[in-house]
Amino acid sequence: MQGLSERQYAAHAGVSRGAVQKARLAGRLVLFADGSIDAVGSDARRAALTDPAKQRPSPARARLKPVPEAALSAVGETLREQGLSAPAVSGSTTFLQARTANEVLKAQERRLKLQKLKGELVALDRAKILMFRLAREERDAWVNWPGRVAAVMAAELGVDAAAMHELLERQVRTHLAELADVRADFR
Question: Which one of 38, 61, 99, 138 is at 20 to 30 Å from 162 when CA atoms are compared?
Fold first, then answer.
């Protein structure tokens, strides 16, 4: 036997045995007299007769797309959050690590959905509205406080009620001005 069998040529070309049989029937292979396949001649003929758009790159020629650095760092971060080993050098994430990180992220997402369904989580925009409403109610209560307590405090201390009201109002406004600088961080 001078050439390769269908099985050997399939392994050589990186295709299935069925593809080799189809190529043989279509006349895209060069055969020796004993029916074995001439690998060099068949490679050249297949390359010339096969539509490049329908060719799969061989494993040696296959180009893998580079993985974005952000994706690699996200995988490492997720693995570290779960106490698993993360790749030390960027770009060296294994498939198993990436798959583990993906499964962890899916589990976290399912847990968040469940917490939202149970009412344990609130949407950020809803939380901002509630926080604003609460802060406004607190501010209004403080602004009205001097008017409610000034007369009672002035009577107990034996001082002028108008002066007491003015003093309390000034102190409350100063305090509220200081609180106005405090901002909620909704990250």
Answer: 138
